[in-house]
Specification:
Pfam families: Glyco_hydro_42. It contains 8 helices and 27 strands. The chain has about 550 residues and is an alpha/beta fold.
Length: about 550
């Protein structure tokens, strides 16, 4: 995670200055549809129970059929270590969950080359083998640029210190472009390639970064400069390509380089807790259509070959609501479950196949669902979904919905309005001034959704349709869908409790044959407007 210094930068401005600092322990009145702040340890996490009959339940539903397995490249990083000398069997425990548990190994250059020219990869290899024996995949983060990462002997080579960062930066970095540093870095990556570690099957990813004021060698080149125009950056990327020849897809960059993408490398960003960032961003396929709907352009280079594509969703310790961390997300933890929920949806909307978490979860059942969803394509995804929502993005106005192969669009007779306003705990830099809130539902008399034509290919398919709605008003809401035997309807009743509920309907031989954005399923209210938040279709 890029733990950038916030104070004085102007990225976040606290709302409600002067409130007493505290950590919430009770359900939040501001975020009543998400669980109270509680860190559930990994050992207590379980998938949500799959129920095989129509029903209506309180709350969200993240269940999938028990036979669903995670995608091979869907990596759920839930452990990390920077101590190469610590045996992993004392750190991690096998998890009986339908996910690919992953450990991130943060390894310093000084641990690999304590004596110049003498490379010690045996312990790193041992740790990868230990992780594999415990059922974990491995992602390697080799840290090199900071003076605390590089070997001690580097201090004698006359390499200057980078001066582009502020005096209060957390990390002091060598000038990585200096010949004395650069030549030895190149030899290190060559040695890594010769060690055979890149070809180890349990190793699923390896991070190539640059230098940064925060912990982790963030970025891919000098700040504010196109990395593809910098010769020593190109040479670094070439070295990684040679070291990972044949498995280039394991390499992921800490920033965008078109040259790196052409080598087959992926990207890891790392600030999805600010879930409205990178809107729009054509480089990662995030575009807006003429009506403000957030659209995923899967022809973007990053997505075309499904390379390593990562995020980090980790800033949920109590400390993030204290001055020690600049109150980055407000002065209490009451919003944390809502941000966690929304960030998880966003990273899946962006089609990530890797995400780094804490060693706990605020919504454990959703975490398991994320692990089962990472790395999926439209052809093999067990479910598709649409989060009906709206936020205001600076210079772009209203941005509608997070969608994953299920699309809601307004049309004549199917008009909707944003509903259920949720306030942001802080001001995010990408949000329109004075509009620090989200709408987490859409309200309408009739709401239609289109299934991506590639999912199921128009063939009759048994499905479960799950709709999370706000129980506001009274009267029935009717679901209409086509099947092999003709159109069928299902209904759920509203009783004006104000709760968030999820209705599930099992449909045999459903046919999603509508073309383009024509409606495959329709919700029609018999009474006041329906207020829908999240619609999911599960293939059985």
């Amino acid at each position: 995670m890029n733990h950038r210094k916030i104070k004085g930068v102007g990225w976040l401005v606290l709302i409600g200055v002067g409130l007493a600092l505290f950590v919430s322990a009770a359900p939040s009145k501001a975020y009543p549809y998400w669980p109270e702040y509680k860190k559930v340890p990994l050992s207590d996490i379980r998938p949500q129970e799959w129920r095989a009959a129509d029903d209506v339940t309180d709350g969200w539903d993240w269940s999938l059929p028990p036979d669903v397995k995670p995608a091979e490249n869907g990596l759920l990083a839930i452990q990390r270590t920077s101590n190469l000398n610590r045996s992993l069997d004392k750190l991690i425990q096998p998890l009986n969950l339908p996910v690919n548990p992953t450990i991130a190994l943060w390894i310093k250059w000084k641990q690999i080359e304590p004596v110049e020219g003498q490379y010690e990869f045996a312990t790193l290899r041992q740790r990868i083998e230990e992780a594999d024996a415990l059922g974990y995949s491995v992602v390697l983060r080799l840290l090199c640029s900071a003076t605390t990462f590089a070997p001690d002997w580097m201090a004698q080579k006359g390499v200057p210190i980078r001066t582009e960062y502020k005096a209060d930066s957390k990390m002091v970095n060598y000038e990585v472009s200096h010949p004395e540093f650069h030549s030895r870095y190149m030899r290190l990556i060559e040695a890594l390639g010769q060690s055979g570690i890149p070809q180890m099957e349990p190793l699923k990813g390896a991070f190539v970064g640059y230098a940064s004021p925060s912990n982790g060698d963030e970025g891919i080149g000098p700040h504010g400069v196109d990395a593809d125009t910098v010769p020593h950056v190109i040479e670094r990327l070439d070295a990684w390509a040679r070291a990972f020849k044949g498995v280039e897809n394991k390499v992921f960059m800490g920033g965008v380089s078109q040259y790196g993408l052409e080598q087959g490398f992926g990207i890891r960003r790392g600030f999805v807790e600010m879930y409205l960032y990178h809107i729009p961003d054509e480089g990662i396929g995030q575009t807006l259509d003429e009506n403000g709907y957030l659209w995923m352009d899967e022809s973007a280079e990053l997505l075309r070959t499904n390379p390593f594509h990562g995020e980090e969703n980790e800033e949920y310790e109590e400390a993030w609501a204290t001055p020690a961390r600049d109150c980055r997300f407000g002065t209490t933890t009451e919003s944390f479950s809502y941000r966690y929920f929304t960030s998880n949806l966003r990273l899946l909307q962006m089609r990530c196949n890797y995400v780094l978490y804490n060693q706990f979860s605020l919504m454990p059942e959703q975490l398991v669902w994320v692990g089962q969803s990472l790395g999926r394509t439209v052809e093999d995804s067990p479910d598709i979904w649409c989060a009906l929502r709206e936020s205001q993005i600076r210079k772009h106005g209203a941005v509608k919905n997070f969608e994953r192969w299920l699309y809601q669009r307004d049309s004549e007779g199917f008009e909707t309005k944003p509903a259920m306003r949720i306030e942001h705990p802080v001001k995010m830099w990408m949000v329109e001034e004075g509009m620090t809130y989200d709408y987490v539902a859409r309200s309408g008399k009739r709401i239609g959704l289109a299934v991506d034509d590639r999912w199921c290919g128009g063939k009759p398919t048994d499905v479960a349709i799950k709709v999370s709605y706000f129980d506001i008003g009274k009267g029935e809401v009717e679901l209409g869908v086509r099947t092999k035997r003709g159109s069928v309807t299902r209904t759920f009743k509203r009783t004006d409790t104000g709760k968030l509920k999820t209705a599930t309907f099992f449909i045999d031989q459903a046919v999603f044959s509508a073309q383009g954005m024509e409606h495959d399923i329709i919700f029609q209210s018999k009474g006041s407007n329906a207020v829908l938040s999240f619609v999911r279709i599960v293939r059985l």
